[in-house]
Amino acid sequence: MRNQLQIKVLGELKVARDGKALPLPASKKTRALLGYLAVVGRPVRRDHLCEMFWKVPDDPRASLRWSLHKIRRITNADGQECLVADNDRAFLDPHIIDLDFLRVCQLRSSAVAMLDTVALEELAGMFAGQFLTICVCRIARSSKHGASTM
Question: Quick one: 10 exposed, middle or buried, by C-beta within 10 A (0-12, 13-18, 19+)?
Fold first, then answer.
């Protein structure tokens, strides 16, 4: 598929379009939000995202809007809207993106047993570092305590 958006969350977050790496936002919270929305694969309420990522005295909805704007600049191109957001919810359309996490989750153990060595090495190569959830959990934990380690 031409103009394919690829997101890798198994290890360090990486985003590419047609195999060409795209620059990620400087904000670690925005990068974690991007990965979270990709993995969840369904609409998530904005108030839930605010509580998860920005539970601080500042204006969390403004921070979320800013982050969604930054994500939209990366994910949406040539009329293809990967990030869909309205006043209540936001999500990355799982039908439009190629997500490494989803490809691994869809593998059945019987299918893995049938893979040749090259395919198994490629599969194992996807797991490079800590899964994105660790980053998301750190943000959620630090936000609950009113501090930001990100």
Answer: buried
- By the 8 A CB rule, do 49 and 63 touch? no
Please tell me the total count of domains within the chain: 1
The CA–CA distances, whole Å, from 73 to 62, 76, 95, 113, 135 equal 17, 6, 19, 40, 22
Q: Is the dihedral of CA 24, 25, 26, 30 positive or negative?
A: negative
CB 43 within 8 A of CB 59: no
Classify residue 41 as exposed, middle or buried by CB count within 10 Å of its CB (0-12, 13-18, 19+): middle
Please tell me the distance from the alpha carbon of residue 126 to that of residue 13, in angstroms, as a whole number.
Answer: 11
CATH code, domain with 139: 1.10.10.10
Kindly state the average pLDDT of the residues 23-35: 92
Nearest CA to 46 out of 16, 88, 109, 96 is that of 88
Tell me which of 30 and 123 has the higher pLDDT: 30
Range of the domain at 59: 5-101+129-144
Q: What pLDDT sits at residue 11?
A: 81
